[in-house]
Amino acid sequence: MFNKIKRYARNPYYALGNDMIQRCPHMMSDKYYLSVLWKMKMGYELDWKRPKTFNEKLQWLKLYDRNPLYTTLVDKYRAKQWVADKIGKQYVNPTLAVYSSVDEINLDTLPEQFVLKCNHDSGSVVICKDKATFDLEAAKSKLRLATKKNFYWEAREWPYKNIQHVILADPYLDDHCGNELRDYKFYCFNGTPRIMYCTNKGVDIYESFYDMNFNPVNISHGFRRFDPEMIKPSGFETMKRNASLLSEGIPFVRVDFNQVEGQVLFGEFTFFDWAGFCKIQPGDWDAVLGDWIELPADKKCK
What we know:
By secondary structure, the protein is α+β, with helices and mostly antiparallel strands. It has helices at 2-10, 12-23, 30-42, 54-64, 69-74, 78-87, 136-147, 152-155, 236-246, 283-292, and strands spanning 97-99, 114-118, 125-128, 167-171, 183-189, 192-199, 207-211, 216-217, 253-260, 263-270. The longest helix is centred in the first third of the chain and has 13 residues, at 30-42.
């Protein structure tokens, strides 16, 4: 009890915030919640008036860059039409079915291989490679929990707050050679892709950063690099062009692509990479990436 009193006396703002995050996070304003969470995860106070690093500016953008278009873009279902209109439907993985609840899922109408996922979050993906052995009830259980969860509350990524939740059935993608599909994630700044990283989809995450000439760059989120280095995909220039078109007018957005048998396919938009809480190594790059984000001049920190 004495230690708790000392903690409150030393810094009541964060001491109270720590307790509220555990007990009643929904009662905290976005700014208060993010200030406390930042101190907990990053170890120092976030300067809202003078953010400098990449991660600091992502937190700022959560509060002060609230373009309603972003809700459409993070919606994995509704973003597809927007992307098709922008760069062409040939770059969009078609949707097999859309369900408002798990009870609507009908395996008889789906191919032998497919993917089920929610449109409003990250991680609620169920892969079916063989309908004969697919555990539909387990899939429904996972997706049912996900549909009840508002992803916004975890890190106050506001574009997710008002998405109408649905479940998608999409075609299963692989390279048809038995190799794991790669994600190519482009960091884009006002329509200019400047750097990208490639990741696998396995349990053990590998990650390698490259510049726009596909030269390796020494940046890390703490995961192992691919060894040997990745081979430049044949559709890399197409990815760059599409990333530029899709990110026009947006201070920062990560635009993801896959490549299947030489065909480039759009993956998703992410406005706050790792929610802005994954430390970038070496630290100098956090500042460099931060310099590339130009905060909108017409929006002022309060």
